[in-house]
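Database export, one record per block. Field names are fixed; values are copied verbatim from the stored entry.
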Amino acid sequence: MKAMILAAGYGTRLADVIKDTPKPLILINGKPLIEYIILNLQSIPSLTEMVVITNNRFFALFQEWAQTPACWQAGHRDLKIRVVNDGTHTPEERLGSVGDIHFVWKSEQQLHDWLIIGGDNLFDQNLADFMRFALKHAPAVTIGAYDIHDRKAAVKFGVIALDANGKVISFEEKPAKPKSSLITMCLYYFPKSTLGYLSEYLGQSQALDAAGSYIQWLSQKKNVYGFQFNGKWYDIGSIEALNEAQEYFK
């Protein structure tokens, strides 16, 4: 299995704070956010490679980071870390989450199971719990879910409902009136037998920016399961979330 860390955003909402630093390289308690993700990925024994997909603007920064001792310490289990440039230069050119996933997958020589995770997601629950659940329900796709306990804030995310077995029975991408506060994290497990569905989606939709739009489409056609995380989770998309994460991870 391979993991893909989505790191091709331009950080426009935090531009005044992070300046020319991509969000995954923001320091949280003295350590780049992405290294928390890599350390968590260590708990998955079947993982063979981590792919960081970024843009041309930040490509050199990620390449430099990937050569640092701290990066290799985070990836100490002899896991290869590969940085991929999606070729975009500005926010207007960005491929979006779905576009970046497709960009990487179409260049692969062989099919693999994939774990996709947003490079600005920060959480403290072990990914091994998520993977045990996902493998139990394979070959279905599994997504991460989290209850933010705030319906007003849920308008910024995909809002889902799960049955007693964890199957997704409802999915609304950024609804104006959320039915609950259970939202989707940018965390997806795709068994290799499901990778072909993306090409079908791309043939029908132009919604490439949010991976949630693809999951919403997929959940209407195939079984998709959701694993609900506990503990703390942050989507580092605002100054408030960044400050809260800094305080929590002290």
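Remark 1: The chain has one domain: 2-248.
Remark 2: The mean pLDDT is 89.
End of record.
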